[in-house]
C-alpha cells in the first residue's frame, strides 16, 4: 500500500536543472569576463553568443530526454538563430551606430526567449503577450538567480549510482586533501632540481594586483548573475498562457463602434487629403516649384520632414490602438478595415512628401548619417504599413506583433548589407566630383567609421587629375587622415571585418602625387625621410608630415 505521508518524488529535472543552470551561468560569466575586457568589441560578441546558444540547445536537449518533459516549452529556434545572425553582423560593420542596433536586436531576442508561453510560439505572439510577458520577465529578472539558489535541491544532488554524500562534498573534500599534498611534493621536486625549481617559481610567482583581481571577481559575479537570471527565466519560470480573446479585449466602456470610428478616422482622412492636395505641386513640380516659394532648398528640405515622419509613426500607433478597441464588434471591425485602408493609402503620400523633402536637401547639401538613417526609417514605416494592411485581411501567421519584430530585424539586416557609411561616402564624393561642389573632408574623416575608408581609397585610385583640384585635395586629405589614424586590432577579440578591410586597403592607397605610381605609404615614407616625423608600420600607427595633417 502507498503511504499517504510520503512526499512527492522529485523528477530528475527538478533536482538537477537549477544546479546545471548555476554552473552554466558561472561558466558563461567567466567566459564573458575574458571576452569583453577589451577596448573595442568585435569577434568576442559572436563567440560569446555562440557559446550561449549552444548552452541553450544543450540544456533543452537534456530536458527533453527526461521523463515527462517532452511537452514543456522550449526556446524558439527562430530567436536563437537571430541571436547568432546579429552577433555575426556585429563583426561585419565598424560603425558604432550599426553595432548598437545589432546589440539592441540581440537584447530583444533574449527578452523574447524568456517569455515561456506554453500555448504559443514566437510567430503567434500578440502585442498583449509581448508587453505583459516582457514586463513579467523584466520584473523577475533581478530576483531570478536568488530563486535558482532556493530551487536547487542541494540534498538531492547525487553522483549517479551513489546514495550517500552529495556531489558537492566529495569535490570539496578531494580539493582540500589534494592541494596540500600537491604543494608538498612540488616543493620537494623544486628543491631537488634547480631547473625545475626555476620553472616552478616562474609558474607560481604571480604578481597579483588586488584591485585588478577584485575588479575581475566583481565582473564575473555580475555577468554570471545576468546569465543566471536569463537562464532561469527561460527554463524554470512558470509557463503562462497567453490572454484569450475575452481577456485581451478592452473594457466595454472603451470599445468603439461604427460612429466613433467614422468620426476619428474620417476626420483624419479629410485632413490627410487636404495636405496632399496642397503638397501635390511641390511633389511633382520639381525644383522650380520650390524656388517659387520664399523657402530655400535647405529650409524646404528641413521644414516639416521630422514632423511628417512623426505623423507616420503616431498614425501607426493610433491604428493599432483603434484595432484593439474595435476588434470585438464585427460591424466596427469591418468599418475599421475600410477606413484604415484608406488612410494608409493616403499615408503613403505623406511618406512620399517626407522622402521628397529629404531628397531635395540631400541633393543640395549631401548625405549625412542623420539623413541616411532618417530615410531608412521612412522606408521602414512604409513596410510596416504595408504589412498592417496585409494583416487586416489575411489572418495567417505571423501575427501582427511578430511581423513587426521580424520586419525590424530585416531592416537592421538590410542596413548591415548595404553598409551605410559606404553609401554616405559614395554619395558625397560623387556629388563633389560631378557638380564641383565642395567635399567636406572633415566629415568623411572624423564622423564616419572605417567602413567608409575602402570607398575613399577606391575613388582616390580611379579619379583623374583633371577633376576638381580642390575636391581632389579634399579627397586626398581624407585619405591621409585615414592613414594617420588607422584602425587598430590589438586582440582577436576586437577583430572586426570593417576595421580589417580598412587596414588592408590603406596599405595600397594611391600616392598624393597623381603622377607617381607608388602608394601613399611609399610617398609618406619618402617625405618622412626628409626629417619631418617618424612613420611606422601601417598596421600600428601612421604619423603624417605636419604640413599635410588636417587642422
What report would you give on this structure?
By secondary structure, this protein is an all-alpha fold. 68% of the residues lie in helices and 0% in strands. It contains 22 helices and no strands. It has helices spanning 12-36, 44-65, 77-92, 96-113, 127-140, 144-151, 168-192, 194-204, 210-235, 258-285, 287-292, 297-302, 305-326, 330-365, 369-393, 400-418, 420-435, 441-446, 453-462, 469-484, 497-507, 520-529. The longest helix is centred in the middle third of the chain and has 36 residues, at 330-365. The model is unreliable at 1-8, 161-165, 512-518 and 530-551 (pLDDT under 50).
Average pLDDT across residues? 75
Tally of helical runs: 22
- Gyration radius over CA: 31 Å
For the sheet with most strands, the description reads: none
Strand content: under 5%
Number of strands: 0
Characterize this entry briefly:
This protein has helices at about 10-35, 45-65, 75-90, 95-115, 125-140, 145-150, 170-190, 195-205, 210-235, 260-285, 285-290, 295-300, 305-325, 330-365, 370-395, 400-420, 420-435, 440-445, 455-460, 470-485, 495-505, 520-530.
Please give the structural blueprint.
Blueprint: H1 12-36, H2 44-65, H3 77-92, H4 96-113, H5 127-140, H6 144-151, H7 168-192, H8 194-204, H9 210-235, H10 258-285, H11 287-292, H12 297-302, H13 305-326, H14 330-365, H15 369-393, H16 400-418, H17 420-435, H18 441-446, H19 453-462, H20 469-484, H21 497-507, H22 520-529
Helix pairs in contact: 1-2, 1-6, 1-9, 2-3, 3-4, 4-16, 6-9, 7-8, 10-14, 13-14, 13-15, 14-15, 15-16, 17-19, 19-20
Amino acid at each position: 500500500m502507498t503511504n499517504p505521508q510520503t512526499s512527492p518524488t522529485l523528477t530528475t529535472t527538478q533536482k538537477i536543472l537549477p544546479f546545471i543552470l548555476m554552473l552554466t551561468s558561472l561558466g558563461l560569466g567567466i567566459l564573458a569576463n575574458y571576452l569583453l575586457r577589451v577596448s573595442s568589441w568585435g569577434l568576442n560578441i559572436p563567440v560569446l553568443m555562440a557559446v550561449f546558444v549552444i548552452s541553450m540547445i544543450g540544456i533543452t536537449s537534456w530536458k527533453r530526454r527526461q521523463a515527462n518533459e517532452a511537452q514543456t516549452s522550449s526556446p524558439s529556434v527562430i530567436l536563437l538563430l537571430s541571436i547568432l545572425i546579429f552577433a555575426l553582423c556585429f563583426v561585419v560593420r565598424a560603425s558604432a551606430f550599426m553595432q548598437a542596433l545589432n546589440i539592441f536586436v540581440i537584447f530583444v531576442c533574449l527578452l523574447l526567449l524568456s517569455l515561456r508561453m506554453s500555448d504559443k510560439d514566437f510567430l503567434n505572439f500578440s502585442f498583449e503577450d509581448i508587453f505583459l510577458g516582457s514586463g513579467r520577465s523584466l520584473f523577475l529578472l533581478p530576483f531570478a538567480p536568488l530563486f535558482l539558489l532556493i530551487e536547487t535541491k542541494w540534498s538531492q544532488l547525487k553522483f549517479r549510482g551513489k546514495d550517500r554524500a552529495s556531489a558537492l562534498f566529495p569535490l570539496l573534500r578531494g580539493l582540500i586533501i589534494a592541494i596540500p599534498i600537491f604543494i608538498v611534493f612540488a616543493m620537494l621536486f623544486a628543491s631537488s632540481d634547480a631547473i625545475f625549481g626555476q620553472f616552478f617559481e616562474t609558474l607560481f610567482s604571480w604578481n597579483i594586483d588586488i584591485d585588478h583581481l577584485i575588479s575581475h571577481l566583481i565582473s564575473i559575479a555580475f555577468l554570471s548573475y545576468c546569465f543566471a537570471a536569463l537562464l532561469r527565466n527561460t527554463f524554470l519560470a512558470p509557463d503562462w498562457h497567453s490572454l484569450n480573446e475575452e481577456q485581451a479585449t478592452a473594457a466595454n466602456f472603451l470599445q468603439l463602434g461604427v460612429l466613433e470610428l467614422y468620426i476619428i478616422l474620417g476626420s483624419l482622412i479629410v485632413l490627410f487629403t487636404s495636405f496632399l492636395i496642397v503638397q501635390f505641386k511641390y511633389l511633382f513640380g520639381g525644383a522650380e516649384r520650390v524656388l517659387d516659394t520664399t523657402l530655400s532648398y535647405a529650409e524646404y528640405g528641413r521644414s516639416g520632414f521630422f514632423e511628417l515622419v512623426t505623423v507616420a509613426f503616431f498614425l501607426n500607433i493610433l491604428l493599432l490602438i483603434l484595432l484593439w478597441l474595435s476588434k470585438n464588434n464585427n460591424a466596427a471591425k469591418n468599418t475599421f478595415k475600410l477606413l484604415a485602408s484608406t488612410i494608409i493609402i493616403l499615408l503613403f503620400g505623406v511618406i512620399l512628401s517626407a522622402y521628397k523633402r529629404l531628397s531635395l536637401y540631400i541633393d543640395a547639401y549631401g548625405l549625412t548619417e542623420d539623413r541616411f538613417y532618417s530615410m531608412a526609417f521612412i522606408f521602414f514605416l512604409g513596410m510596416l504599413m504595408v504589412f498592417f494592411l496585409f494583416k487586416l485581411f489575411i489572418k495567417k501567421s505571423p501575427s501582427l506583433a511578430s511581423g513587426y519584430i521580424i520586419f525590424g530585424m530585416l531592416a537592421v539586416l538590410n542596413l548591415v548589407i548595404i553598409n551605410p557609411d559606404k553609401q554616405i561616402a559614395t554619395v558625397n564624393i560623387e556629388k563633389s566630383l560631378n557638380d564641383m561642389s565642395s567635399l567636406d573632408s572633415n566629415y568623411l574623416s572624423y564622423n564616419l567609421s572605417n567602413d567608409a575608408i575602402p570607398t575613399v581609397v577606391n575613388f582616390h585610385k580611379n579619379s583623374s587629375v583633371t577633376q576638381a583640384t580642390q575636391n581632389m585635395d579634399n579627397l586626398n586629405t581624407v585619405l591621409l587622415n585615414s592613414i594617420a589614424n588607422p584602425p587598430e586590432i590589438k586582440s582577436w577579440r576586437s577583430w572586426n571585418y570593417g576595421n580589417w578591410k580598412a587596414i588592408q586597403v590603406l596599405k595600397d592607397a594611391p600616392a598624393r602625387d597623381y603622377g607617381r605610381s607608388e602608394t601613399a605609404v611609399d610617398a609618406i615614407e619618402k617625405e618622412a625621410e626628409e626629417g619631418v616625423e617618424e612613420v611606422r608600420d601601417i598596421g600600428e600607427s601612421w604619423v603624417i608630415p605636419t604640413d599635410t595633417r588636417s587642422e
